[in-house]
Design a protein that fits this description.
340 residues; mainly alpha; Acyltransferase
Length: 340
């Protein structure tokens, strides 16, 4: 993994944390320009995540031939354990404290659909969100992985075209069916293809290293994101996010070898999953004890960081390795016995 992408993943995750802090503590009513930025534009961290995901999946599978099922199994082992764990915790929190959590409701059918990455109306009545609200992005991620698995049956030179065609065709097809049409008609899903395009260009040496030009492009992209609405998310936020990603890749020599940034990036998935649980806990403390919300947030940040680091070590690394070793042992071909 490029350290520049790790740093950007961490920044994107913590941007989303600040966005949800403004939602949970202030119901998206900001009192200053910084707060207003996170209210209006903090969700762009998701767009950056999607572009990075497309880039990383493309680069990590080049020059590799594997069954599509093996690819999907590896991704499932990587994504599902932590997501299921924190979804269960969120469900228990809602059951225990649901009366005090605005709009938070859990029921068994919706909970099961959440675990299966199937979009469905949240029983709280606020949209197509799973029990662990941030999991809506993982519905897109798993859908992308399913489409990407098709590339392993075609030559490498055709893989970007195949995944693009498959993603477009299936999205257009499912967008005619009820709930799925409301979810997969969102053009945010095509941001994965922007990441694949960056990976394709990077592999061919078309991403030139530099500092001042990438910094200028990042500044221009941030201005665009700040001034453009999310109504056309792919064009207004997705394209600037892709420019930010490719600019960070171009600055890789200035990031290379930074272990802190690598660790922050490693923990970003757990940060994304954990932060809502911690913020809701902080919100309860703020309401009950009448503590300043910003003081509570200052406490929540290191708590999220420490919990995410522990989650990365125990769930994302150690459990992942054990599950992968177990799966590979079961999938390994059985040696034939010689008859003597």
């Amino acid at each position: 993994m490029l350290i520049s992408l790790q740093a950007l993943r961490a920044l994107a995750a913590w941007t989303v944390v600040c966005h949800h802090f403004m939602q949970i503590f202030f119901d998206f009513h900001a009192s200053g320009p910084i707060g207003q930025f996170f209210v209006d534009r903090g969700a762009v961290g998701v767009d950056i995540f999607f572009v990075i995901s497309g880039l990383v999946i493309y680069l990590s599978t080049q020059d590799k031939d594997m069954p599509a099922g093996r690819f999907l199994l590896n991704r499932a082992i990587r994504i599902i354990p932590a997501y299921w764990f924190y979804t269960v915790l969120m469900g228990l929190m809602i059951v225990a404290l649901g009366q005090q959590m605005p709009h938070q409701v859990v029921d068994l059918p919706h909970f099961i659909l959440s675990l299966l990455f199937i979009p469905s109306e949240n029983p709280g009545g606020y949209g197509l969100y799973p029990t662990l609200n941030v999991g809506w992005t993982l519905n897109y991620e798993m859908f992308f992985y399913l489409m990407f698995s098709l590339v392993f049956v075609v030559p490498q030179r055709l893989r970007p075209l195949v995944v693009a065609a498959a993603l477009f065709a299936v999205c257009e097809m499912v967008s005619t069916y009820g709930v799925l049409s409301r979810f997969y008609a969102n053009n945010i899903i095509y941001e994965f293809l922007l990441g694949i395009a960056i990976g394709w260009a990077y592999r061919r040496g078309w991403v030139a290293q530099g500092l001042w030009m990438p910094l200028m492009l990042i500044a221009v992209s941030l201005v665009a994101i700040y001034n453009l609405p999310a109504s056309d998310r792919l064009l207004n936020w997705g394209v600037p996010s892709a420019i930010i990603v490719v600019s960070c890749v171009a600055m890789e020599p200035w990031f290379k070898g930074n272990r802190l940034l690598k660790t922050l990036g490693d923990c970003s998935y757990s940060v994304y999953l954990i932060h809502v649980l911690v913020l809701y806990t902080g919100w309860f403390a703020s309401e009950r004890l009448n503590i300043n919300p910003y003081l509570v947030f200052a406490i929540c940040v290191p708590v999220i960081a420490l919990m995410s680091w522990a989650s990365y070590i125990w769930i994302e690394t150690r459990l992942y390795r054990r599950m992968k070793a177990w799966a590979e042992a079961r999938l390994a071909p059985v040696p034939s016995r010689s008859i003597t």
